[in-house]
Design brief:
about 240 residues, mainly alpha, Growth Hormone, Chain: A, two-stranded parallel ribbon, two-stranded antiparallel sheet, 8 helices, about 65% helix, MFS_trans_sf, transmembrane helix, POT_fam
Amino acid sequence: MFPIWATTIVFSAVYSQNSSMFLEQGMVLDRRIGSFSIPPASLSTFDVISVLIGVLVYDKILVPVARRFSNKERGFTELQRMGIGLFMSILAMVSAALVEIKRLEIARELNLTHEKVEVPMSILWQIPQYAFVGTGIVFTYIGQLEFFYDQSPDAIRSLCTAFALVTVSLGSYLSSLILTLVSYFTTLGGQTGWIPDNLNEGHLDWFFWLIAGVSLINLVIYVCCAFRYKYKKAS
């Protein structure tokens, strides 16, 4: 079970972007809707909303449809559910990268590259990336808990289920490590780097593409491990 557990750490690294680089990106987008200014952190609400909607759609629509094809009571196996969640995490990073590419394009067109100011692009364009993360949570985290509860040895079932939650903290550490390495290597020789204080001069989109690439490699490894995994017999 350990390889399956390890691959979910990367998903948690993507999830940690909700409270880190997604906020940095939101700070340099247009946060005004009429006379109201949207706090970038408030967009995580769409993460929660997508979880609530995702659980409802999964239980009421996806499971009954999948049950017809798979002849399984739960519709999807735990490993299939987790795999879908890992794929959603890739879509989240791709969405964030595309938003950043457009933001930088607007900054160049308006000659704002060397000015530390907001770019006239609505912060609401970030909603899809938060929604993808929330949908990924529905599949990955819930599937992960089911997997560890069902597949763990009976004597240490509670311990293994709790151990699955450790991936959340390890994902945050992994995200911090990647960010530290990116900041170090991209600023060698006095270069501006991908993530400078003025994001209009940087390439936050490249950072998002990097996380998406790591997530893609992680998904391939996960699929290989999932195909080799043998479910234990029900006790």
